[in-house]
Amino acid sequence: MSRHLARALLAALAVIVPACAAADARVFACEPEWAALAGEIGGDNVTVYSATHGRQDAHYIRARPSLIAQVRRADIVFCSGAELEVGWLPLLMERGARREVQPGQPGHLMAADHVEVMERPERIDRSLGDIHPSGNPHVHLDPDNVARLAVELAGRLARVDPANEGAYRSRLADFQARWGTATKRWRARAEGLRGMKVVVHHAAWAYLLGWTGLDRVATLERTPGVPPTASHLRRLVERVRTTSADAILLAPHHRGDAADWLSQRTGVPVVELPFTVGGRDEASDLFALFDVTLTLLEEANNRP
Amino acid sequence: MRVVMRIARSAAVALPALLAGTQAVSQSGTVPSATDLTAEIQALKLEYEARIRALETQLSTIEAKSRAVEREAASPVRRAKSTLDNAFNPSIGIVLDGRYASFSAEESAIPGFATGHESERAPEGLSLGHSEVTASGNIDDKFRGNLTLGLGAHPGEATEVELEEAYVQTLPGAGLPEGMRIKTGRALWTFGYLNEQHAHGDDFADRPLPYRAFLDNTFNDDGVELSFVLPSALYSEVGGGLFRGDDTPFGGSDNGLRARSVYARIGGDIGRDAAWRIGGYLLDGKSLNRGGGGHAHGHEEVAHEEEHEDEHEEEHEDEHAHEEVHEDEHGEDFAGFFSGGAFSGDTQLYGIDVRFAVAPTGNARESEVVLQAEYFWRKEDGTYALAEEEEDGMEHLEELRTDSIAHGWYIQGVYKPLPRWRIGARYAWLSPPDGAEIDHDPHAFGMMVDWTNSEFGRVRLQYNHEALDGHEKDNQFILQYVMSLGAHAAHSF
Ligand SMILES: [Zn+2]
What we know:
The complex is a heterodimer of chains A (304) and B (493). Chain A is built from ten helices and eight strands. With 304 residues, chain A is an alpha/beta fold.
């Protein structure tokens, strides 16, 4: 009887102990796309917190108390980097963060440090806008970048939580297989979009445009982060008409008024893409994010 | 780098060719046969070609190496720094603040409170407000330093330089327990909501009445503060400090360790797009002749010294007797002691702050509502000394013994309907020290509208209606600009 009890206890322990350990690795993700990736690689071995949601502009976030509390407990801080979060992350790090997630530590993972960053400016001056001094930080809309970050994240998770290294490695392998197949599919679809002319609101779409071969004919924000001016918009009307653009791309966190104004005058439709996971209800994970984005672009491109 | 390489390579090709040419010409002087010459030239050509090829290989190796260096330069570790630190160390920030003000009342004193230079009403007309220069940066992996100079330009006076902040604080790499931070020097210490902020970040052109009355706008004494962010799901922070005791609400510290503080605050989210924070604070310390700088007389030198008793228990027990003493001997109000006298004794200042912010779309930059309120409660137990010149030409130091309570609060709301526009309203109220026997409670109402071009430039119009002394109401209009250059603080809550 007692042996049975002991065996049952041991069995229970075998279940409970890993379950406790499972809550060990905490990932603080600055943006929903990195939270989603952490979910893919970490599974139930990690607790993921996303500092922002799909309709928030990650350039401008307040270092509110809840974020300090979350960073305080994080084992990995996973952000876009390249100064996207420069207005709030440093404050969180200074106020709450542990040594293990400070720059240079394995718990400090900035996506832009692991991919080719586009649009690095040659000089920095606030009259050129204030938000992309280290190049374009919106790196997640290129599937290859996501793949690179998946590898990097798995390595970091294994370092901060070595007990579950095996789980991270196997989830990475599984993710890589699925992501690889999906990427092939997306590239094939992108072939059909090549040369599609788009107007963008903010430099947010640079990476998407890069691998899909879309052609940017105009940008509503003349300088990143500075709302479009009326005079600039008036000049754009002519350019958009003559280039016969196919769509005006808008992210959920951008105000649509400038895009709508231009659309009314040029007849070019506004297409609100999800931009990140949760940016639209259908974009519920990283795979859906790319699927939905391509579907919306195809719809706009096939419009007569 | 690559361009330089290319030039170097073409030079490497051109130079041997040129040399080959001159050599050919000089050799032609010895008149060798044409075939010899052709053969020799051929040999030279081959030799130089080999040399060029060798040079080119060398160059391409160098080039490859330099490309590798470039790649390395752009590699993670180096770039990570720029994410959290500024490109320049120390980073410099400048704030320019100017204003045009118009007031309907001549004076703007708060009866029952000794307000200092900092919290005075701005000069009328066009004037410079409070310009600021900040230099800050990480000293190493363990410490961070900050120096802030406030430049006060008072018309007709020399420009006043105030050392607003000069502190060193520990970084998470300093080896302290996790979540702990120590700050030492002079800083805008943790007390209430506004005290930690630089005035140019405020939502209104001036500080609300409780800040002016109890803190002379800010408490930035010399001291050391320890704070600790707890590893809880709910944001919670506790801390405390030791201070010299030389800045309002204290003053005249002699041994340099006369004040201390404790505080605790918690905060969190409500849903996705709303956040809150509540805090409780205490400043406790001793003053020695606070505000008594103008009266040089020591107690011993005073020819005639009188004492007033203002014990409240007594007042209630025997109000008439007290009134008599007051009327008969002096025929003046007690308020003068509180607003003009030098205080020696114990001060306890308690504060509570509440802040609630909601952004309908999650993007505070687009649209936001922020509600904020603070309540201060002060107890002073000690003596107010007031120098008075009497008919005989002698200066007499009169003293008022007091154990009094004063309190005050303000509440404000700011609404951002459009990304560049904000409107706000504020109401502030004070209850002067009960011992001062002032039957009017100073209060003020303010409204503002401001326009923000970018994060770095803001123009504001504010209207204040102040009823501070019960006689005269002050209608104030303030047109203000606040512009910043260089580094600026992060977007705190
Ligand atoms: Zn951006």
